[in-house]
Amino acid sequence: MIALRKSAPDVAQEVDMARDETGLRRFLEPDCAALIWQRETPADVQHWLDRVDPDRLPRGRVIVQPEMIARVLAEFCVMSGLPQGPEQDWLQADVTRLAGAFSSLMAARYLRFRLDVVTTNACRKFHVDAITARLVCTYRGTGTQLGVSRQGETPAHAQTVATGSPLLLRGTRWPAQPASGLLHRSPPIEGTGESRLVLVLDPVTDPGDEVESHMTTPAAAALH
Ligand SMILES: [Fe+2]
């Protein structure tokens, strides 16, 4: 676990852990800089996910009402040619569950819903996203990495979030100030042959005002 600025009580201090959906409410407390929902994908599903042809992994991005996530994901799976079966059923149910839990937690009427298949170092620099909050869950491959920067320096250490464990992050538009110094990046996998399947959910209050998210610390592409 990463401990942040222990000496400043009004600053988010911890990357905390949740064991179940109920524990996600910890994310809303002032001293929680980020939250990891510790859990494991069922072994048979993970085995299947790790071996699916990367070209057939579902991908796409859309702003959608949370209750429409299941239908949209089903379309993504059809478009990519993901093999049908109980493992795909589990993936669809899990993404739908995370979308429901996160939209409820954030009181979001809409979500920016992304499924990315990542094979590069597209976002290897540590950064904070210009958003309110984000849920990231890596279903296949190495998880998102966290690090602390107190004075703008590159973090000396990185903590890798476990595959299958959702990570809830604050962005620069989170109302709490000052910032915690907690940064994140996608793991450096280029040249390894690894293919990651990453779910990203952002709360969207008004889709009419929606603009593409971008990163601020430092500038880089929008992957995890
Ligand atoms: Fe990011």
From TrEMBL:
InterPro entries: DUF1826. This is DUF1826 domain-containing protein.
